[in-house]
């Protein structure tokens, strides 16, 4: 049991310069007994309102140096404070606020909400067990308008999809990775590097791109790039929800449409998923 969607903004001031982190926290506990479920005995139950207050107090006292460190602080607090807690799991996601720049100059206290992917993390711990830390990015929409195709696929009497050697590749990406033994990691640096790997593997070189024969191959390329460049990542789960675009037929308007006006196909949509780890 636990408390979901604890939302708050943490404001940190250093003189005139302000820093913000707006987060949503979900924290769940498992107790050493099930008396509350089986007998209605609540003597070991930590109220969910107390869970919410603990999260807010820790944000006030410790700040949020990184999402991962804040989640670790929450898990450690419950483990060290309450002997009846057998397991704790904390999920945190961050609203994508970025510092506003005016003519290249960073503003001291103004920010802009930029929908370029949502950062999240998840930390769990069993009593007498190690901390397990996951991090990730979700709702990251990516598109390239060429250098993508889909050919040579299996065909039978139910196949109507034509082969394409040049198409738009667009998708909404979810990536979640696990760390090995948690040491003194720079979680911010690692997260930014993983994001750069995702963009690099998806797009290819900026002057020419890189051909993608399928969404599946793109998913694998992203994972291989991350594992080759970020040694702290041990296992990575990736889901790419496909967003398709159909070319508008303009023959009745006496116009040709050489893939210049397209409409998105909302549903149904395809999805590719893969989990890849080190040996």
UniProtKB/TrEMBL annotation:
Annotated localization: Peroxisome
Keyword Oxidoreductase: yes
InterPro entries the UniProt entry points to: Uricase
GO CC term (a single one): peroxisome
Catalytic activity entry: urate + O2 + H2O = 5-hydroxyisourate + H2O2
Pathway: Purine metabolism; urate degradation; (S)-allantoin from urate: step 1/3
Record: residues binding O2: 48, 242
Record protein name field: Uricase
Organism, as annotated: Jacana jacana
Gene: Uox
């Amino acid at each position: 049991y636990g408390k979901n969607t604890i939302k708050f903004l943490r404001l940190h001031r250093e003189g005139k310069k302000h820093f913000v982190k707006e987060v949503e926290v979900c924290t769940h506990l498992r107790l050493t007994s099930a008396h509350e479920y089986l007998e209605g005995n609540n003597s070991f139950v930590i109220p969910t309102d107390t869970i919410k207050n603990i999260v807010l107090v820790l944000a006030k006292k410790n700040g949020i140096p990184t999402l991962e460190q804040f989640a670790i602080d929450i898990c450690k607090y419950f483990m060290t404070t309450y002997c009846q807690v057998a397991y704790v799991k904390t999920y945190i996601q961050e609203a994508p606020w970025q510092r506003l720049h005016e003519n290249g100059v960073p503003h001291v206290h103004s920010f802009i909400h930029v929908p370029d992917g949502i950062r999240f993390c998840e930390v769990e711990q069993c009593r007498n067990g190690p901390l397990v830390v996951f991090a990730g990015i979700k709702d990251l929409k990516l598109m390239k308008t060429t250098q993508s195709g889909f050919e040579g696929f299996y065909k039978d009497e139910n196949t109507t999809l034509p082969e394409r050697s040049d198409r738009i590749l667009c998708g909404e990406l979810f990536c979640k990775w696990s760390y090995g033994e948690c040491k003194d990691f720079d979680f911010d640096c690692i997260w930014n590097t993983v994001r750069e790997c995702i963009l690099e593997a998806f797009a290819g070189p900026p002057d020419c791109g890189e051909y993608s024969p399928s969404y599946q191959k793109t998913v694998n390329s992203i994972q291989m790039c991350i594992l080759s460049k970020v040694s702290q990542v041990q296992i990575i789960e990736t889901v790419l929800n496909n967003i398709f675009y159909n070319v508008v037929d303009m023959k009745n308007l006496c116009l040709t449409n050489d893939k210049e006006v397209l409409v998105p196909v909302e549903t149904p949509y395809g999805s590719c998923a893969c989990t890849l780890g080190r040996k």
